[in-house]
Amino acid sequence: MKMPLNWARDFAKFECTPREYAERMTMSGSKVETYETEADEIKNVVVGKILEIVPHPDSDHMVICQVDVGTGEAVQIVTGAGNLKVGDLVPAALHIAKLPGGVEIRKGKLRGVVSNGMLCSLSELGLTKHDFPNAVENGILVLDEEYPAGTDITKALGMDDYCVDFEITPNRPDCLSVRGLARETAATFNVPFNDHIPSVKAGHGSSADMLKVDIENDELCYRYCGAVVENVRVKPSPKWMRERLRLCGVRPINNLVDITNYVMLEYGQPMHCFDYKYVNGAHITVRNAKSGESIMTLDGTTRDLSEEMLVIADEKGPIAVAGVMGGEYSGVYDDTTTIVFESAMFNGPSVRTTAKKLGMRTEASGRYEKGLDPNTCDLCLARALELVQMLDAGDVVNGVVDVWTQKRDERRILLRPEGINRLLGTQLSKDEMVKILLPLGFVMDGDEIIVPSWRWDMERDCDVAEEVARYVGYNKMPSTAVRGIANARYTPRQIFDKGLVDALIGYGLYQIETFSFFSRKAFDNINLPAGDKKRNAVVISNPLGEDTSIMRTTALPSVMDVVARNYNARAAECAVFEDATIYIPKATADELPTETEVYTIAAYGDNYDYLAVKGIVEQLAATARVSNVRFVRNTEGTTFHPGRCADVYAGDDCIGVIGEIHPAVLSNYGIKPRVCAAEINVDALFAHAGTTPTFKPLPKHPAITRDLALVADTAVAAADIAECIEKAAGKSLEALKLFDIYTGDKIGEGKKSLAYSLVLRAPDRTLTDEEAEGTVKKVLKALEAINVTLRA
Amino acid sequence: MKEKLQAIKASADELISNAQSAGEIEELRVRFLGKKGELTAILKQMGGLSAEERPVIGALANDVREAITADITNRTKQLENAALAKRLESENIDVTLPGTRPAQGKRHPFELVLDEFKDIFIGMGFDVVSGPEIELDHYNFEMLNMPKSHPARDTQDTFYINENVLLRTQTSPMQIRTMEKQKPPIRMICPGRVYRSDAVDATHSPIFHQIEGLVVDEGVTFSDLKGTLELFVKKLYGSEARVRFRPHHFPYTEPSAEMDMSCFKCGGKGCPLCKGEGWIELLGCGMVHPQVLENCGIDSEKYTGFAFGMGLERSVMMRYNIDDMRLLYENDLRFLKQF
After folding, report:
1. What is the ipTM of this complex?
2. Which is the most buried residue in A9, A263, A338, A682, by most CB within 10 A?
């Protein structure tokens, strides 16, 4: 909400710098975003009076002017414009003047004749014909009011006022008006608020004889006030009104339209004017749209209406969408002679829904949806009629047609100082509180606060507390630290998570953060088969675009994007992980999806092959104290290399997958080097995490080590051999380590040699060589069953 | 004999002190002290001495033996020291060569700053909780005094899944979920991802992070809110950091405020970072609206509370002087390695 300071001064006399104003208003609750003046952009431009005009000797379109700029000495300025005559008052930019857009004017010579500045047109001052309708488009601006020569042009044109831009919160629609903000200003600066009560002089006839108004839906229309103005005289509005509108960012149109906008800005009430001859039957009905009805709105678009929308209709059909926008014939035209002013109140949520549905949020709808005050519709209409008379814009017809279905009844709140102090932590007296409330328009009746109709945000103690607090000053109130016992701590799961993230970082991986949503194409990028259950994702009904339209069911595509980005940035090595949340839909759409945490790891580079990433997962499981982790070959997938992929199990639960990314997937991402990746479900990992370990005494007896070189078919999995050895060796096997693998000529095609080291130990005695040999024999015998033999 | 002993000693002294290796020394030990050594040979002749001479010569012989033994020990030590010195000299390396570093990744800057926030709040007695990102309209809006068609919903452009389910636009629904589950006293923070329909640019992202805070107990006041948040800022930015509170509006708190902190770059004088104001907007806060407490079945006449919410991105960007939010989600290693 933009507000020129001088407009506010109509209601409250205050004196301060704009900066101080911004600061104090912000601290009392009306947040100032910016304050600026057009004069900042214009320097050293003054009102000049043309004393003499002579033709330029060397040009047929330029003239040489002698200009009085208030210094007592005429200044010579050359100009090319042809609309000047002696005695005209014009904007004269003097030597070293500044104009909007960073233009600087200096003296110089034009075809050999000295020019000590420049005479300015509207556009050179950053203005348009809307601001000065009497000015010529392509010529020097000739001022139509008297000013002494030398007056600063920004002052003469009303460009020197500061315009303050407020951020108005939705609870204070009353502050979407100069009057509302002026009331806050008066309270903030502790000066009287001089309210303006419009007075309309008696006119002729009776509006009630000319206009009939019916409200069919009193749930959605609380009040409708209409008044008629005859013999309208459409012309530009006066400069002061145009200036104020312009500063507020509203384009001046003509006096009648400007009045509706002026009243809206001043009082907060959206106004509308209809051309009386297009109100068929001179009968306005506020009703719901009928099925199949449509309307061409002022912006020239035909809009289909639906039955829940409220319209202003005449006897033929809708002439406006209530509170949103008028129809094409609701306006002021050259041939308009009689108009109807509308000042009405509609249900906020209904206006909001309608405006959203029609896709046209307007200044009016934005105000209505916040809930305006129906009690002041007539006041605002009176202000409009007062302005019509002041501007001589037409002849006001007596009386107002006022249909009022829902009044705001008086609201009272019991002032409970103890309740307010309890909330604020203060010890303010009742008197101190009352002193704050009165200037804001509240009225006291004993212990009860009578809430003014424009402050419908006020309902209970806490609302009163805020009024008190903001005028005491938030920063003048006490500050007390939290009390009570601090017994918070991280949960076991939080500690678990932090430990594992730290571990992953310790293994050299960089933590990344990617978006939780992506495109369906992400599934194609990782070559997920058509029917894969991961393709069943939560869909956003109103996404920003296809790229961000579904919630991810796997973070692998997002992480691969990061890998690809770093590959394209020529990173020699890239090892990253995301502690990613994935979203798995439930059976019905109204059930919230399951949100699961998945460590999603991907890496390429000299140090990262399948076994390196597997090692990371093994180490992670060990850190998490998950002892029953197994890797089971998975040849089914299309995302991973069919020969280099395993499902990760903890006990019987599949907790993730690990593998080298399929070359076809790599090519989808344009990545050349091999990439290995893993997805580990943290919830599942946590479910299998071991508890606090129990100390085992250190061994008292020596161990015996036996090395076995074995030969197996290449297809036999190392995990199966290890399992076989562990089972056969029994309790005395303390450690088993695979220390060498060999394939080659010496053992023949289709075979591999594996060298294991077995550490055997008994807790209660020194094992004998015979016992060790016995264990080795058992192991070898068991291995025969899976066709694994001692290497010859 | 005495002369012989002295001659042996003199000869041993000289030979041992000139020995150049452990082997030579061993040879000399055998030559002088061995079973067939020179000293032993002398001692064997002691039988021929008189009773008076025997103890004298015996004592002398012992002295000689000890002296030679000491010589051997000393020379051995000398040689060892020399050898060690030589080895050390030969093992000289360029100690300025680059070290062989273990692999070490890094936490994402979000997590670095968030960890700090969490630690501070844990220390102030706040539990850290988390909740669903895909949330019911009921929790995200309605229970927070924002019924359907409430204009305040406009300030939070919302991604909907369907009419009742949405991507949470704030972490505030966790206030409701916490109060429904737990009776006062409550002291918690809830960090997490939130979603708003903003296109990506240098200062906007459709996904960002918030940290919600909630305190509910008997006798909690607006002054407590001020003191608590002031303490948080001082713990985070140092004791010289100042804060100010400005009135604001949130449908679920009353009174409501925004908190600014003195610009840490210029200390409040005004600079480009704080746009000349000397203050940086940090968070929104307020006293929990009694209607919200009542919505959760908490007696608003008995209990009061305060709540606050702040964005993480802004803090991270200010902390590390990052000028473009997109960098945080691009995960370029050249970026991540800097933290």
Report:
1. 0.87
2. A263
Residues B321 and B197 in one domain: yes
| B77 within a domain of the structure (yes/no) | yes
Domain end (from B90, B125, B140): B90
Q: Do A171 and B104 touch (CB under 8 A)?
A: no
Encode pLDDT of A53-70 as tens digits: 999 998 888 999 999 999
pLDDT the model gives residue A546: 93
Task: Give residue-wise pLDDT tens across range A73-82.
Answer: 899 999 988 8
Nearest C-alpha neighbor of A454 from the set A143, A181, A231, A646: A181
Average pLDDT, chain A: 93
Same domain? B175 vs B277:
yes
State which residue of chain A sits closest to B115, comparing Cα positions.
A498
Nearest CA in chain B to A32: B246
Same domain, B269 and B184: yes
Contact between A593 and B134 using a beta-carbon 8 Å cutoff: yes
State the pTM of this model: 0.86
Q: Are residues B55 and B130 in the same domain?
A: no
| Partner-chain contact B221 A484, CB within 8 Å | no
Per-residue pLDDT tens over the stretch A226-253: 999 999 999 999 989 998 999 999 999 9
Q: Rounded to an integer, what distance in angstroms lies between the CA atom of residue A526 and that of residue A519? A: 12
| DSSP codes, A342-408 | EEEEE-HHHHHHHHHHHT---HHHHHHTT---GGGHHHHHHHHHHHHHHHT-SEEBSS-EEEES---
Q: Using CA coordinates, name the residue in chain A closest to B108.
A: A511
Contact call for residues A176 and A1 (beta carbons, < 8 A): yes
Asked if residue B193 and residue B77 are part of one domain, the reply reads no
Q: What is the CATH number of the domain that holds B283?
A: 3.30.930.10
d(CA A303, CA B123): 59
Residue of chain A with shortest Cα separation from B193: A516
**CB–CB of B106 and A542 under 8 A?**
no
Contact B125 A424 (CB under 8 A): no
The beta-carbon neighbor of B222 closest among A477, A569, A571 is A477
pLDDT given for residue A381 in this prediction: 96
Alpha-carbon distance B250 to B261, whole Å?
20
Mean pLDDT of B205-212: 96
- Given an 8 Å threshold on Cβ–Cβ distance, is A540 in contact with B221? no
B326 — phi, psi (to 5°)?
-60, -30
CA distance A512 to chain B (A): 6
B88 interface with A at CB cutoff 8 Å: no
In a domain, residue B145? The reply is yes
> Which amino acid would we find at residue A770?
E
For B137-156, how does the pLDDT look when each residue is reduced to its tens digit (9 = 90+)? 999 999 999 988 787 777 77
Q: Least CA distance to A477: which residue of chain B?
A: B223
pLDDT tens track for A432-488: 999 999 999 999 999 999 999 999 999 999 999 999 999 999 999 999 987 777 789
What pLDDT, on the 0 to 100 scale, is given for residue A768? 93
Give me the residues paired with residue A403 across strands. Answer: A224
Range of the domain at B40: 2-90
Query: Is the Cβ pair A349, B244 closer than 8 Å?
Result: no
Which of B108, B135, B165 comes nearest A511 by C-beta?
Answer: B108
- Among candidate residues B90, B117, B138, the one where a domain is terminated: B90
Contact B222/A at CB under 8 A: yes
Q: Cβ of B249 and A169 within 8 Å?
A: yes
Continuous segment of H or E residues that includes residue B204 = none
Instruction: Identify the CA nearest to A401 among candidates A201, A215, A217, A265.
Output: A215
Whether residue B69 sits in one domain with residue B116: no
Name the B residues in 254-273 with CB < 8 Å from any A CB. Answer: 254-257
With H, G, I as helix, E, B as strand and everything else as coil, classify residue A454.
coil
Asked if A592 and B127 come within 8 Å (Cβ–Cβ), the reply is no
Clarify whether residues B61 and B192 are in a common domain: no
